[in-house]
Every structure is written in structure tokens, then in C-alpha cells.
Amino acid sequence: MKKTGINKNVIMLCECAVMVALATVLSLIKIEFPYGGSITICSMLPILIIGYRYKPLVGCLTGVVYGLIQMLFGMSNFAYATSWQAALMILFFDYLIAFGVIGLGGVFRGIKNQAVGLALGALLASVLRFLCHFLSGITVWAGFADGMPVWLYSLIYNGLYMLPKFGILIAAAIALGLLVDFRSEKLGAVKRAKK
């Protein structure tokens, strides 16, 4: 029986919901830093996979939903906002845009080697997410720099927790890319070329 467009959309929405739930659970297993940020085990990977499977736009929208959930867990961060502009910076650059850009990792789907495509996608998503938090760090969180140049404070603080997180993400993306075929409609093992 051939699937209709409606069934494909329902399947896609269900996969997105499951991946947001999985990303949320993975985000709870963490080493937390004092003023926000944490090292998690592959919490970005489910959103990256959605972007890879269903195009970057779907991945970005899924990432925004995930960002909203993360914002609910991190509502206490808004207490540090000294103005409505700072609150907007936290909203967008610590949550909505920062998590939305993860879905852009799907832009490398066209690369023949899936593991390389996922690794490049993980790298792109990681750099873009870092830039979001870096911008937030030099604006909203500048008061914590304590005499240090604000850009350096943001670079060091965000780098300390994001570099390990991104290393874990890229390694996991490569491993999964070698094992699971995310390009096929039904997930299955990657087919090896016959010698």
C-alpha cells in the first residue's frame, strides 16, 4: 500500500515529536555550569537527524520547539535580564535561534557519505549555536566578566561547556551515520557496497 502525502506528514510529525522528547530526555543527563550552559550527551543529535531526514526547515522548526521546552526548564535565566531587550536576547539567542539552528545540519544531506554529511552538519550546527550563545554572552551576561574583556569572557565561558558537547555530538553523528540509513523512508542499516 502506497503512503499518501497526509500519511507522510503524520509520520514526519510523529518522528519530530519523538525526537524532541528524546532530545529533552538527553538534555537532562548533564554536567551543569553555574550561570547556565551544560555538557550533555548528544542532546542535539535528535534534532540534527530530523533536519537531515526531512530538510533543514523542518529541522529548524523542530529545534525551535525543543528550544521552547529548554526555555521552560531554564526560566530562572530570565531573572538575570536587566531590561526587556536583555530578556529578548535570552529568549532568542539562548533558546529559540540557538536551538533552531541545529536543524540546519541537514544541509549536507546531498553528500554521498552519510557519516561525513552528518558530521559536517553537526559541526555547522555547533558553530552556529556557539555564535548564538557567544552573542548573548557579550550582551546579556557581560556583568559576569569581572574586569575581563567581555568577548573573552563569553568565548571562554561558552567554549568550556560547548566544545566537549560538540565533540561528543560529532563523534555520535559519525557513528550513527555509519550504522543507520537516515535517507531511506524506513530506517534501517546502512547498506555496505559489495566488493
UniProtKB/TrEMBL annotation:
Bilayer-crossing regions: 12-29, 35-52, 59-80, 86-108, 115-142, 162-182
Keywords recorded for this protein, A-Z: Membrane, Transmembrane, Transmembrane helix
The protein's name: Energy-coupled thiamine transporter ThiT
Organism: Ruminococcus bromii
Gene: thiT
